Amino acid sequence: MASSYSKELLLDMYRKMYLIRRFEERAGQQYTLGKIAGFCHLYIGQEAVAVGPAEALRPDDYMLSAYRDHGQPLARGSDAGMVMAELMGRGTGYSKGKGGSMHIFDIEHHFYGGYGIVGGQIPLAAGMAFASRYRNEDRVTVCYFGDAAANQGSFHETLNMASKWKLPVIYICENNRYGMGTAISRTSAVPEIYKRASAYDMRGEPVDGMDVLTMYEAVKDAAEYCRAGKGPVLLEANTYRFRGHSMADPATYRTKQEVEAERKGDPIPKLRAYMQKHGMAEDSVFETIEEEVKALVDQAVKFADESPEPSLDELWRDTIVEEGEEDVRPRERVLGQKVNWPKYPSGQELKVTWDLEPREQAEAADKKAGLIR
Amino acid sequence: MSTNPYFNFESEPTMPELMYREALNQALAEEMERDANVYLIGEEVGRYNGAFKVSQGLLDKFGSARIIDAPIAELGFTGLSVGAAMVGLRPVVEMMTWNFAILAMDQIVNNAAKLRHMSGGQLRCPIVFRGPGGAGGRLSSQHSQALEANYAHFPGLKVIAPATPADAKGMLKAAIRDDNPVVMFEGERLYAIKGEVPEGEHVVPLGKADVKREGTDVTIITWSRMYYFCMQAAEELAKEGISVEVLDLRTLRPLDEEAILASVRKTNRAVIVEEGWVLAGVGASVVDIIQSKAFDDLDAPVERVTGLDVNMSYAANLENATQPDAPKIIAAVKKVLYREGA
């Protein structure tokens, strides 16, 4: 039985998932060493949810996430050293050490941030999708949030608008079954988050979040649907975090047996087993990838460790845009690498050609409702 | 002649007279014409032509993609517009009143105000949040409050509160062109006020206060609707031979320290008039600026006239008693002048 996927694609997925795993393990270690502070929400166990979509999307599609936000930018190509530097509060971090673990931003790779307020990023994603429609661009926006965020008003308010206005946005709920320490079933009348899409007449589907290929297919399909102007999609990725909510959480609310059982569904060995079953790669290929990734992460930690703290005058920068001030291009600033910076049409170049609510349509609806105009 | 319900200015108009709401409408139309990235979203802004008629006629001019009737979901449509601004659109978000914007405050202060900082300068958020603020009209506690001090507290925002139609137009134009999030308080009771408004390109820079009336004995520092009570008080006091300077702050963040200090150094006395509550009000920060930088220039302690430290009542007499007015301002001026009866 041949696989329908190319070896290159699958190896890339493997490499990215393994990178996130090793990176997060080292981040956890640096936290216990006191080099990373604040909250540090590790992604271990959820790698497939970031990597499948990253492979399915175009590089210019927008993405944003919540506070468990190290995995997605790494999956999209962000520099591991600069992410680690951000976690350590160094001036070479993506946000010059001003954002920390919960606020990774890499605009060059169209990663528009991690956000610390539960559900606060959900409307932002709809707005970015709205901008794409406004400018008649066919890019989609992917927004990650946790299961607990689905109980926030921001979720419901936004799904209503996104569906009504057919915005090209894919909402990926990472259902890892716990909102911090509280099981989702204890706080939700309907714990199957995908079902809530039906309340807004939009497409909603459950997806196996422990399988990178299922995530890949689901997002590829959803992106096509969005690009065709059919409206938003809600995907519920059923996944599991192997570690606590954050490094500060020993996760005593779960049984050892539960965690052990879930660990058997680890998405990384699963992909490896799939590839071996289809005769796509020898052990040595995986070993080579793993060695390369370990070296890369070592280098990232070393880079961050040796980087200076931000200078104190940074306190007074990046709060208000001064006239004529340029935006910061982190990789250019830190590594001296030329970057592609997103450019948006000026107001003069832009022609807004679509209607949110065409006049005839609105008037027909009024007539149908018996309203006289 | 002005049809200002608070105060009649006796001067011949040299420019077209517009109502405050018409001045805002003109600013919106001109900026939308100039820049297709600008859109307006809010409750009833489209087919209803605006709850306070600020957006009158704009839907017909610009279509439903740019004049957007939002659901009654303040957090949702505010956050949506912050997202649009993150990728280069220039939204104007109309709050039907600032009382409702309390529901959207997370998006304004936790996202819009902090995006640039949290991203280390990668992002900018060119957005205007605007709508009527302030008390009055016997609407009781939930609809009658001056909330600008809340927003003035947050770094990353600019906060403006123009008093006159001309400033309303010029400052809204400047706000739309600004690359930072701007919170604009209009006066719910000011929309029908008329005043001269320059036509076309009239942009009033943000962060600059304006001496609206020159005087030598005492400075009254104020903004938004209270400005009219201050002018009324100044006229009354002039009859008693007291020369009052009225400084309209116009922008509450950043505060125009230079203008505040220049005026106080000239008159050596100051009264601050604020519609909002006394505790942690904007006026408290103005006092702080004066006492820390111009203490030696003061001939009397600075006085504050503010709303009473209570919630707003429905009953007409209680509502009136809660708010600053000309007699209270006159009393405060006399107090800093050590006049009898104060």
TrEMBL record, chain A:
GO molecular function term, any single one: pyruvate dehydrogenase (acetyl-transferring) activity
Enzyme's top EC category: oxidoreductase
Keyword Oxidoreductase part of the UniProt annotation: yes
SUPFAM superfamilies: Thiamin diphosphate-binding fold (THDP-binding)
Record flagged with keyword Oxidoreductase: yes
All copies of domain Dehydrogenase E1 component, residue ranges: 15-311
GO annotation terms (biological process): pyruvate decarboxylation to acetyl-CoA
E.C. number(s) listed in UniProt: 1.2.4.1
InterPro entries, alphabetized: DH_E1 (IPR001017), PDH_E1_Alpha_Subunit (IPR050642), Pyrv_DH_E1_asu_subgrp-y (IPR017597), THDP-binding (IPR029061)
Transmembrane segments: none
Catalytic activity: N(6)-[(R)-lipoyl]-L-lysyl-[protein] + pyruvate + H(+) = N(6)-[(R)-S(8)-acetyldihydrolipoyl]-L-lysyl-[protein] + CO2
CDD domains found in the cross-reference section: TPP_E1_PDC_ADC_BCADC
Keywords of this entry: Oxidoreductase, Pyruvate, Thiamine pyrophosphate
Subunit structure: Heterodimer of an alpha and a beta chain.
NCBIfam families in alphabetical order: PDH_E1_alph_y
Function: The pyruvate dehydrogenase complex catalyzes the overall conversion of pyruvate to acetyl-CoA and CO(2).
Name of the protein this chain belongs to: Pyruvate dehydrogenase E1 component subunit alpha
Species of the source: Corallococcus macrosporus DSM 14697
This protein's encoding gene: pdhA
